[in-house]
Specification:
Length: about 450
């Protein structure tokens, strides 16, 4: 039993292996041929546990989990939360479960099944493996929790590690975010690292399990610290942000958009490039961590909100492209209605609102520690929306985590939707991006009142 000193933050870390030993279907690329054929590097469930005893002796427990997999639908997240709450006592909505969007992991969202998103996709063995890994990691992290201090900062990456695949000539940048956790003697014990990049360095013809560049982030921190520092990575707003598979000093005007999508004409990364990108992020984070000052905890706030994401279509001007997009949406919507009749086997949580409109039930979450704040997004968000969240957040130390507690598809601005493209096809919610973004900004503001 942990005795919590008044007005102290306890923090603990742990990880567990969640790599399938059997050959299974892999996720991320719908046209990947064949099942997995081996393991290049292990996949993990990383967990960080927090407990804060405020001056009034009110204890707030919460946990943040990062999984080296593609994504998890909300119904699976809530099942795992329920088990964690029963076994550890951590309130279920104080638990954040994030997937790094790794495309070299088992299929957990239905990309390789004919029935796709419309049937349960997390096979029983993998469901148990991931769940056991999460539970064991959180349980061990709680046991290891010790009094800690915390601090955070951001810095530009030294190299051009990312490219906007929809707008390659746009100079999309994302700062490397670092949250430093010290013991009470000022010794560095843990790093939370936040960046934004699709887990797609490795191409669709890779059939070996790997944590992609994310695995190299954690390995590099482990090496730099002589295994003394725990690191955990949370992916930011990367719906349209790809790893740069060209020269790191490439001129954007020379980039051909077609090569940024995996396929016959696309550029192909490899394990060496995954290592280069991961180690660059890690080294940048490590150097920044040395400059970060940590402090005692004065405030911890957690907010959770269920949201009903609209499925209403938008058309805009009646051009041929928009007419075709409208037709595609109507076909998808009819599929949605059919699937809703069998909602017990569907991954999405379709509900009717008070007006009888079909919506997707999901959630958002905000975790605040002092002026450090983590807002969550329930899917893949295009960078324009993420930039709006960062601009309008009450704190400069805002670290957005997408694909957290759900993977409800792509989310984009109305302008991006009307432009069309792959991302628009992979969504039931043309208005969802604007809606969820505004909801997140509102919850952020509420957490700073």
């Amino acid at each position: 039993m942990i005795t919590i000193p008044s007005n102290t933050l306890l923090v603990g870390f742990s990880k567990r292996d969640i790599t399938p030993e059997k050959s299974v279907k892999m996720g991320g690329y719908g046209y990947r041929k064949g099942k997995s054929i081996g393991i290049h590097d292990r996949l993990y469930a990383h967990a960080i546990y927090f407990s804060y005893d405020d001056p009034n002796n009110n204890i707030t427990e919460f946990a943040m989990i990062s999984l080296d997999i593609l994504g998890l639908f909300n119904k699976y997240v809530n099942y795992y939360r329920k088990i964690i709450e029963e076994k550890t006592g951590i309130p279920r909505y104080n638990i954040l479960i994030h997937c790094v969007h790794n495309h070299s992991a088992p299929d957990t969202v239905g990309l390789t099944d004919v029935k796709g998103f419309f049937t349960r996709t997390l096979k029983l063995d993998n469901f148990r493996l991931v769940g056991r890994g999460i539970l064991d990691a959180v349980t061990e992290a709680k046991k290891r929790a010790k009094p800690s201090k915390i601090g955070a900062d951001k810095i530009e990456s030294r190299k051009r590690l990312i490219i906007n695949r929809r707008e390659p000539k746009k100079d999309s940048r994302y700062k490397v975010g670092v949250i430093r956790i010290d013991d009470l003697n000022g010794e560095l014990k843990g790093l939370i690292i936040n960046y934004a990049c699709h887990g797609t360095v490795l191409p669709s013809d890779n059939r070996k399990f790997s944590a992609d560049y994310i695995g190299y982030i954690n390995k590099t921190i482990e090496k730099l610290s002589n295994k003394e520092v725990f690191s955990i990575y949370f992916n930011g707003i990367c719906g349209d942000i790809n790893p740069n598979l060209m020269d790191f000093d490439v001129k954007l005007d020379d980039v051909d958009k077609d090569v940024l999508y995996d396929g016959p004409s696309g550029l192909k990364g490899d394990f060496a490039r995954a290592r280069d990108i991961g180690s660059s992020i890690a080294n940048t984070a490590w150097d920044l961590a040395k400059e970060i000052k940590t402090s005692d905890i004065k405030k911890v706030i957690i907010r959770h909100k269920e949201i009903l994401i609209p499925t209403k279509n938008i058309v805009g001007k009646y051009t041929l492209k928009n007419t075709v997009m409208d037709l595609i949406f109507k076909i998808k919507y009819k599929l949605l209605m059919l699937v809703r009749k069998f909602s017990n086997i569907s991954n999405y949580n379709f509900v009717k609102d008070e007006n009888g409109n079909i919506k997707i039930k999901s959630e958002i979450q905000v975790i605040r520690i002092n002026d450090i704040v983590f807002p969550t997004l329930p899917g893949e968000f295009l960078i324009n929306l993420g930039e709006k969240i960062l601009r309008e957040s009450p704190s400069e130390k805002t670290f957005v985590i997408e694909l957290a507690n759900d993977c409800a598809g792509y989310f984009f601005s109305i302008e991006d939707y009307l432009e069309g493209g792959y991302e628009s096809l992979m969504s039931f919610s043309p208005l969802g991006g604007t809606f969820v973004t505004n909801e997140v900004i509102g919850l952020l503001r509420e957490s700073f009142k």
